[in-house]
Structure formats: structure tokens, C-alpha cells
Amino acid sequence: MRYGDSWTCDDCHRTWNTGRVPQSEYDQIRRMQLRFRLLPIALGLLVVAVAAFFTLTGNGRGVFVLLPIALIVWFVFLRPSHRRRYRRAIAERQKWRIHEER
Q: How many domains does the chain have?
């Protein structure tokens, strides 16, 4: 969904217009979302690069060790704190009362 689009709820059939959110504040939220998406993307690219290095150097077993370790590090250590910081950043943003369109 893009800024200014109208959205209709499938359950209650109410229509909401995102254009009622100030453009500058909407852009700030989008930038913040992009910033918080960078860590998982960077970690994924790092794992792919290391896996490719292991594969090209003939160390195929290293890939089978790398992937579970990377998943454990992400899901047990990094992701919970990343989510907390993201939720805290979202909670600090201004809230709007947007009423349904009639």
C-alpha cells in the first residue's frame, strides 16, 4: 500500500484513507522501517557470502555448520533485541486518530 491509498477491511468492510496521515510523518515512518530492515538483510548477505566462500574453497562441511549457527544467533540473540528496539521506536512515534470514510 502506498501513501494516499484507501484500504478496505475484509472483515468489517470499513474504508480507511492513508492520505489523512501527514506526508512528512508517513515518510519518517517509512525511513525508520527501512533502517530496521537493514540488519536482517545485512546478516543474510554476510551468511551467503561466507557460505559461498566455504563452497568455493572446497569446505562444504563449513556451510552445514555455518547455517545452524547463523540461525541460532539470529533467532536467539539478535532478533529479540532487534524487535524490542523496533517496537520501542514505533511506540515513540506520534499516533493519529483516523476515522473511517463514509
A: 1
